């Protein structure tokens, strides 16, 4: 049970961390995440953070609905986050079954 809590906490921290990164990148002008079905007009900080949290969540779990697209520096961080999201289930399996061995001939 503590392993699931640990990995859940790691996922949550990564989601929030990347959301803050996406927000900072957007505010700096080095990149953005564009919502295709919303007319953007200078989003407030809470709205920008919520959009970044949503994008971070769908990116780490590799859902990728296609309603939001990263541009500029945000693309690099989205790629990094997607790769981490791809590796996390592998880490969970390795952590849960560290001593499993395949038996030959069975």
TrEMBL record:
Segments forming domain Potassium channel = 11-93
Q: Does the keyword Membrane apply?
A: yes
Q: One biological-process term from Gene Ontology?
A: monoatomic ion transmembrane transport
Which key words are in the record?
Answer: Ion channel, Ion transport, Membrane, Transmembrane, Transmembrane helix, Transport
Which residues span the membrane?
6-25, 45-65, 77-97
Q: What is the protein's name according to its record? A: Two pore domain potassium channel family protein
